[in-house]
Design goal:
By secondary structure, the protein is mainly beta. The protein has a single domain, classed as Maltoporin, Chain A, CATH 2.40.170. The protein is built from three helices and 30 strands. It is globular and about 65 Å long.
């Protein structure tokens, strides 16, 4: 199916019309409206890093459901994987739209938005990802946009390796009659430091402006975001620690969303524009001439999305639509592919029905499908099927779910358009990737205590990986691979008056088949932790002092390119003192990599050293 600007405009018109109709009903009827309140418990202790200002990736570093593979600083460059997938298999969604990085997927997590403007992240897998995800075959990290509250914060910090960072956020609120309010919020952040290794310096700056109109049952937001990041790290992408690599990105994002909620339905519509200007240099000591090998790229993306649900008696109907158009505007090196622009469309419809309901239990059956369409590749339809058993009790609930979901996606321009031979070898014949996953999940919620056990099996077909062959040691080659993945995930949480603890464990096993391709190692698909354990602790020592501690132990799958041990223990901590009363003044000392662990999260790429900072913050 070939998409066109006419189809894009038609869907946009439909989305705006739906929004307008919902809003008109809001203002002209006497129906009782309710506001959906989502409470997403945080699964990590630390909300700010020691080495720079906070970014959306910061709260993912020790999440038990997510593996963040870091190049020096997570906020500098990191890959986010879920349940043994690759970085391109994880999408990042704000409201109803997934913010796509068509170049590589490495920059998908680089949302140029202050995390204080967003809700806590929710990791969507299986059916949830199949419904709301877009070009993300395994998982989506989803954010909402909360209502703005008047106030702000000013923060400044200094630390090891000549670090200094400053940030300012301020919000103004104007209330109107009948619960309506208008709000404006701005955020500015800057960070600079030499890094914990030679040639590991960074200079970041970020600017955000948010406009919001909210009522009891609707919310409209417009966010303007810009981020300029220069980041250096030896062997960041090549794995050669002797190469002083740098990456300079400039990201612009304009996002608009509108949400409506009634007592039997909710609807979100949105659209965005994203532009990324990327200047990567594999050796900062050389002078670029703008020729092949300079690795300069510029991409642009337009996207719209609709996501909602409505409820009728025992039926719930979930639906979603996302349409995106991307363009590789210019590139010195991504020039060997079949195309430099692409349109995508994803549709999903998933009804659920309560097939049994009593005072002691409820059984819900879910069945549906999603369709992925592109003008540059074959289309794909993916089914979904789920069965959920709920058992409420006086002090909590228990649940048991069985689900199957399929999903597909298309690779980025770096894999498709790079020259077949070279530092990053492309493959223009790569096509649609598929993932089919089945999972069984058992959970218990009891007051402040929760526990969840999940066992899953996934078939990845034509997954795009970057591989190493000793016959061409200076090249990383894009190849497809079939992988069978088995995993076990355990999450537990408990809290007392002054202490909260969250613990997680994940086991992964993979069986890969690269066909006739000659490989000696994998940079991504087979770079995973067979065993990974996390513990987050948040303890109020006194009324004025609190301790936050995040820990991770892992036993990594062996990789011949890794020169460090396969075992790793990482710990980050912060100790915060708050002034008495409501002064809003806090002083904190933070540390990342307390044990100065030298584990190479990417084979051959040096680890980040210990980082310590002292921070002062004033909230009003």
């Amino acid at each position: 199916m070939k998409l066109s600007i006419n189809s894009f405009s038609f869907v946009a018109f439909c989305a705006i019309t739906i929004s307008a109709v919902a809003r008109d009903e809001d203002e002209k009827t006497e129906a009782d409206w309710i506001e959906e309140i989502e409470v997403h418990a945080k699964r990590v202790a630390l909300e700010t890093p020691a080495g720079t200002y906070a970014a959306p990736v910061t709260m993912l570093r020790f999440d038990p459901s997510i593996e963040v593979q870091i190049r020096g600083l997570a906020e500098g460059q990191a890959d986010v994987t879920v349940q043994g997938g690759l970085f391109e298999n994880t999408g990042f969604k704000i409201g109803p739209v997934t913010i796509v990085d068509p170049q590589t997927g490495h920059y998908a997590v680089d949302l140029p938005v202050d995390p204080s403007l967003l809700s806590a992240p929710v990791v969507q897998t299986g059916i949830s990802n199949a419904i709301g995800g877009f070009n993300s075959s395994i998982a989506t990290v989803a954010y909402g946009i909360p209502k703005i509250e008047a106030g702000g914060s000013l923060r400044a910090g200094v630390g090891s390796d000549n670090l200094h960072n400053e940030s300012l956020r301020a919000a103004l609120l104007r209330s109107e009659i009948e619960g309506r309010h208008l709000a404006i919020q701005g955020s500015v952040a800057y960070s600079e430091g030499d890094g914990s290794v030679a040639n590991g310096d960074h200079a970041f700056e970020r600017y955000n402006l948010q406009l919001q109109r909210a009522t009891e049952h609707t919310q409209t937001d417009i966010i303007f975001a810009y981020q300029d990041k220069f980041f250096g790290w030896p062997g960041a992408y090549t794995g050669f620690g002797t190469l002083a690599e740098t990456d300079h990105t400039q990201t612009m994002l304009v996002l608009a969303t509108h949400r409506v909620q009634t007592d039997n339905a909710w609807l979100e519509v949105g659209g965005y524009f994203r532009q990324l200007d990327d200047d990567y240099d594999f050796d900062r000591t050389t002078t670029e001439a703008g020729a092949p090998g300079a690795f300069d790229h510029k991409t642009r993306v337009y996207g719209i999305g609709v996501h909602g649900a409505f409820y009728r008696r025992n039926w719930d109907w979930n639906y979603a639509l996302q349409l995106m158009s991307d363009e590789l505007i210019r590139s010195t090196d991504l020039t060997e592919g079949r195309f430099d622009s692409r349109d995508y469309l994803t549709l999903s419809l998933t009804p659920s029905i309560v097939i049994a309901d009593s005072k002691t239990s409820k059984v819900i059956l879910t069945a549906g499908a999603s369709v992925d369409i592109s003008n540059r590749d074959n289309d794909a339809a993916s089914p979904m099927l789920g069965l959920e058993f709920l058992y409420p009790s006086n002090n909590g609930s228990r649940y048991l779910t069985f689900e199957y979901a399929g999903k597909s996606q298309l690779p980025g321009y770096t894999a498709l358009n790079s020259r077949p031979a070279g530092l990053f070898g492309g493959n223009a014949s790569l096509g649609r990737e598929r993932a089919d996953q089945a999972a069984i999940t058992l959970g218990i919620n009891s007051g402040n205590r929760t526990m969840e056990l999940s066992i899953f099996y996934r078939r990845d077909r034509d997954l795009v990986d970057w591989t190493y062959f000793s016959g061409a040691p200076f090249s990383r080659q894009a190849n497809d691979v079939n992988i069978d993945v088995i995993g076990v995930k355990l999450l537990a949480r408990d809290s007392w008056n002054d202490l909260n603890i969250i613990a997680g464990y994940t086991f992964l096993d993979k069986n890969s088949n690269y066909g006739q391709t000659q490989i000696d190692a994998s940079f991504y698909a087979l770079n995973f932790a067979r065993h990974r354990m996390t513990v987050a602790l948040h303890y109020h020592v006194t009324d004025q002092i609190e301790l936050r501690l995040d820990n991770e132990y892992r036993l990594q799958e062996k990789n011949p390119l890794r020169t460090s041990s396969e075992e790793s223990f990482l710990a980050s901590a912060s100790l915060t003192w708050a002034a008495k009363g409501d002064d809003g003044l806090t002083v904190s000392c933070s540390a990342d990599n307390l044990t100065d662990e030298d584990f190479q999260q990417f084979p051959g790429t040096p680890a980040s050293g210990r980082q310590i900072s002292l921070n002062v913050q004033y909230d009003w």
